[in-house]
Amino acid sequence: MGSRPQPPNLRQEEGRLLHAALVEQEEDEEDEEGSEESSNDSTSRAEPLTMPTFDVPYFRYIDDEGTEGEEEWSSSRSLSSIDEDSSTDSVVSDRFVVVSGTPEKILEHLLNDLTLEEDQGTSQGKESDTLLDDFLLTYPVFMSTSDLCQALLGHYCTKRHRGKEDRKEAVERKQKVLHLVSQWMALCRDFLRDDEHVKLFMKTLYRYVLDDLYEHPSLDKDVRELQKLYQLHRTHTVDNYSPQRKSKALFHQSSLKENRLQSRGTQRENKEVLCHVYITMDSFLSMRVHGGVVAQELLQAVAERMDVPLGELVLVAVTYNGGRLLLQPQDRVFSDSLRPVGRLHVCRKDLGEVLNPFTDNSELQQRTARMLSLNTWDVAVALTNFDWTIFASIHEQELVYFTFSRHSSSSHTVALELLLQRCNEVQLWVMTEVLLCPTLCKRVQLIKKFIKIAAHCKAQRNLNCFFAIIMGLTTAAVSRLSQTWEKMPGKFKKLFTELETVTDPSLNHKAYRDSFKKMKAPKIPFPPLLLKDITFIHEGNKTFHDNLVNFEKLHMIAETVRLIRQCQKDPMGNGITQKSSTEVRAYIDDLHIIDNQQTLFELSHRLEPRA
Questions:
Q1: Is residue 42 classed as helix, strand or coil in its secondary structure?
Q2: Confidence band for 406, pLDDT divided at 50, 70 and 90
Q3: What ranges in 193-276 are assigned the alpha helix state H?
Q4: Under 8 Å CB-to-CB from 69, ≥6 apart: which residues?
Q5: Acidic residues compositional bias: what residue ranges (predicted)?
Q6: d(Cα 379, Cα 591) in Å, to the nearest integer?
Q7: Cα–Cα distance list, 576 to 76, 467, 499, 524, 570 (Å)
Q8: Using an 8 Å Cβ cutoff, are 168 and 116 in contact?
Q9: 28 and 54 in contact (C-beta within 8 Å)?
Q10: Strand partners, 106
Q11: What are the pLDDT digits (tens) for 501-545?
């Protein structure tokens, strides 16, 4: 093994690595002499400081552009061992931080540093778990799933290239790969459900583990874990796969359960989605339906909601290229990726023009009395239950896919997009209800009701609906209604001002962040702000530099998206959902909304004309 460049004398100015990752310790015994020589050279240059050295091949510190002799690797001293106010005479830790590297070397380093069950709970084990979680959450950014599968198979099968590997080391290496695969499947199973590369990888890995089971019986526990995670089954015992009985038939005996594909389709059809059904050119019903809904079921729900005979209605989809498709009763409304086949419109059969509206805004005005009759706490409970159903199904990795794959349609972001869509709907719903209220006194009552609902949502730890309602009341079309706001009682004006302060964007939304931090889990955050934080990290830092992955950036992104997991946990049994009224739930599930901003402004000026 040839000599490699030693790390530079790294000083306190590298304190900018606040979110450092991949802590490496000196392990390579064969390079011990070279490490000692480098340490002596470092001491002669900067006495009395003694810098520890170690060898991390193919890593590079991103900001050291043009530094000779450091083109292939990078490392930095961990800030966890350095006091912020220390001088160059501080005690230097022998722990380092790797901030960039090739995907293959990052994976190799991660496996070497991985701790098995007996080491869990120790400080080293916790660090290893965090690094593993960082990698599994962000790997789609720098390598494909197919590449990761190939790399893991290579690490499982390939022996060490430096000297001989004893039996214990071989088992440990295989167990580490299987542990990583187990964590990967547990974390990302929903995203990998239909990936053909993963199916083949799991079957192939399962075959390799069965091959090794005779020589290494201790892998039996890992075999059972693979079976449980990916629903694999086997019809054999260890004796069946002694060296004399191994054959190609082994591959065919390890297979996925026959009903797996069928169960996937069932899961997709049972998943709830939000469906927009336009009943005029500028207003729609937001309906909660299952993913496998057909046109007949949707028409039935709309007919009941609008009190129109089912036989008079047809469902038309306006495709994204402008075409019009008349959906037959048994036609699926959503594709396999849970996206509608087009913009859905309902109209009467006897109309000459398919897209002519069958209703007008006068029918919407009847909703005011119903809205005023609802209990504000019950409405907030129904809104929170609705949002929690969506939020609880969001995976942290959805934020990564949304940020890095925003220009391509991804089936991995359905739940996140659903929650963002719901936030917009609630905001438009608030505007619609206020602007369709014809009388001044009832409009004042309606705004008072929305202010109370917003306060209840905040008390129920639902910041998504809280923000949506406040933003709906502060939009130009509503806030310009000066006569309405002047009639508002003083205590409601004060309450609204306090609530509006939480949404203040100054100082990077400090008011919201402070308020949200004090709330106990489970809780529902404001998703656009999470996406803003990730986008700032993404746009402000390079993902690659000279073909090396900026793992420091990915660590920061992983830290941000883990907030989803923390908000979903309920360690104290606090619970966020409550029993809601059937009447209120039916009202909230099918909101009638105007989404045309020009129409909303026209309604606003009709209520209070410009002076």
A1: helix
A2: low
A3: 196-213, 220-230, 249-253, 260-270
A4: 5
A5: 24-39
A6: 12
A7: 43, 17, 20, 9, 9
A8: no
A9: yes
A10: none
A11: 999 999 999 999 999 999 999 999 999 999 999 999 999 998 888
Do the beta carbons of residue 473 and residue 430 sit within 8 Å? yes
Helix pair angle (145-157, 167-192), 10° resolution? 160
Residue 12 makes CB contacts below 8 A (sequence gap 6+) with 82, 86, 87, 88, 90
CA-closest candidate to residue 433, choices 609, 611, 610, 607: 607
d(CA 224, CA 412): 28
Other C-beta atoms lying within 10 Å of the C-beta of residue 541 = 15
φ, ψ for residue 451 (rounded to 5)? -65, -40
- DSSP assignment of 379-444: HHHHHHHHHHHHHTT--HHHHHHHHHSTTS--GGGHHHHHHHHHHHHHHHHHHHHHHT--SHHHHH
Please name the helix (run of DSSP H) or strand (run of DSSP E) that holds residue 174, with its range, or none.
helix 167-192
Contact (CB, 8 A) for 423 and 286: no
Element (H, E) at 36: helix 32-45
Rounded Cα gap, residues 162 and 111, in angstroms: 16
Please report the pLDDT score of residue 604 as a whole number: 95
Q: Which stretch, 82-86, 231-235, 295-299, 462-466, has highest mean pLDDT?
A: 462-466
φ, ψ (nearest 5 deg) of residue 258: -65, -30
pLDDT tens sequence across 209-257 = 888 888 888 888 888 887 776 664 343 334 444 444 443 333 333 333 3
Q: At 40, which amino acid appears? A: N
Q: Can you tell me the distance from the alpha carbon of 111 to that of 332, in angstroms, rounded to the nearest whole number?
A: 45
DSSP type of residue 7: P
117 by Cβ neighbours in 10 Å (0-12 / 13-18 / 19+) ranks as: exposed
Cα-Cα-Cα-Cα dihedral sign, residues 191, 286, 581, 572:
positive
Cα torsion angle, 522, 525, 530, 531, sign: positive
Residue pair 419/387 in contact by the 8 Å Cβ criterion: yes
Q: Residue 180 corresponds to which amino acid?
A: L
Residue pointed to by tokens 């590449």: 147
